[in-house]
Amino acid sequence: MSVFICGDTHWGYDHQKIAMKPWPEQRGLTKDDYLIVAGDFGLLWDREETKQERYFIRELQDRKFTTLFVDGNHENFDRLNDLKEIDMFGGKVGVVAEGIYHLKRGYVYIICGKKFFCFGGALSTDKEWRIDGRSWWSDETQTKSQEDFAYDNLEAIGWQVDHVITHAAPASICNQLDFVDPVRYNDPVARFLEAVRYRIECKSWHFGHYHDDCVMEDKFYLHYNKPPMRIV
């Protein structure tokens, strides 16, 4: 069993990174192997299921691996929030379809024997050009109850996990990205993750959102263009 991570797929736009040619390792995978998308999965986007969406779902289901994702900011949260929930990996997940699951904010999941703290969401800096309920949702940023839920789950395990999967980065990491304006990018999710950063112990922290690829401080991985990276 193995776990791979990749950046935003914005399904239909940026999912080519998980095609066979850039990611040939998938040939040897099974449904007991996992690909985690670090937010902006984007498969459920329209108000209702479309023919194209059904095609993409079937395409993913035909792959040899199981697909997991945290939410980003560019997601249809009305539909994500309506997904059926089931117990999986020691927590609750939303079911898009068999083999495609939403990892919800604040849970510590056990995947392939490793602990993963997951917390999606981020602030959209382009929301003034988007339409509320059609291309932008206020659920893109966290609630106080989601923060409290995360803190309680981390406290219960002594703040020790193997890997962290988020969409945004902690504020201090975000501020190291020279293409992100820290004044304009006053992200409440990044501020929350900054508080988490200084208490949690982890081997690696993976995120997307900023549309680049780099590694900072030896364990903070920004993913976007590169094909999936194996972490377990």
Name the beta content range.
15-25%
Low-confidence residue ranges: none
- Could you describe the largest sheet, including whether it forms a barrel? 7 strands, mixed
First CA to last CA: what distance?
A: 8 Å
Structural class of the secondary structure composition?
alpha/beta
Could you give the count of β-strands?
Answer: 13
Q: What's the pLDDT, averaged over the residues? A: 93
| Estimated helix fraction | 10-25%
Alpha plus pi helix count: 6
What is the total domain count? 1
The topology string of helices and strands comes to EHEHEHEEEEEHEHHEEEE
**Structural shape:** globular
The radius of gyration computed from the alpha-carbon positions, rounded to a whole number of angstroms, is 16 Å
**CATH class value:** Alpha Beta
CATH topology: Purple Acid Phosphatase, chain A, domain 2
Provide the spatial order of strands within the biggest beta sheet.
Answer: 4-5-6-3-2-1-13
CATH architecture: 4-Layer Sandwich
Sequence-ordered SSE layout with sheet pairings:
Layout: E1 3-6, H1 10-13, E2 34-38, H2 51-61, E3 66-70, H3 77-82, E4 84-88, E5 91-97, E6 100-103, E7 108-111, E8 114-119, H4 144-156, E9 163-166, H5 171-174, H6 188-197, E10 204-207, E11 214-216, E12 220-222, E13 229-230
Parallel strand pairs: 1-2, 2-3, 3-6, 8-9, 9-10, 10-12
Antiparallel strand pairs: 1-13, 4-5, 5-6, 7-8, 11-12
